Amino acid sequence: MGASIVFSSLVLPQHLYLNYAIAYFVLSTMVYLGFIFLVLPQHGLRIKWIAWQGEEKAYLYYEGFLAFAFFHNGVSLSFISQSSVGSGFWGGYAQPLVMGVFVLLFVGGLVVKIWSAYVVGIPIYYWKDMFVGRKISEFVVSGPYKYLSNPMYGIGQLQVYAIAIYYNSIYGLIFGAINQGLVFLFYFLAEKPFINRTYLSKN
User: The pTM is what?
Assistant: First the structure.
């Protein structure tokens, strides 16, 4: 319908939907990354949380909230792509080529992410080791980790770009890259030092 999107009986300009989508992304990202930055570092809030509720109970609450934050972060990125259909520059390319790139990136990213989570286990996927502050398994060098140092944050994010390509959304690509950059920021500032200290240190 041109520059408008229909939702039930309500018709709004497309740019308003994009504004809402970006606001949703910013809010969900602040909740998601703000939460893990506050809780998981070496001297994070997890220490007081565990002292207050005990390790297992505190972790269950943490895991539940993190799953909630994961969900909304992913939905917000899809919403941005869906709210900015046609803003990209590849709309003139042959549809089979675009769909081929979409399928390749989406399937590749999803398979690597699921494979990575399977290899390390769901507790590591939710950073349980960082939450409790100790090793809960051996350092993994199998599966995709045999070939890539960080498959989950790298190739495992490709489905976000695939969705943006499917909707011909430049905003989807931009915010997907911003989101991935912020995740890597957390990795280098908090997670990698924890891995070096806990799993790779000789002391």
Answer: 0.86
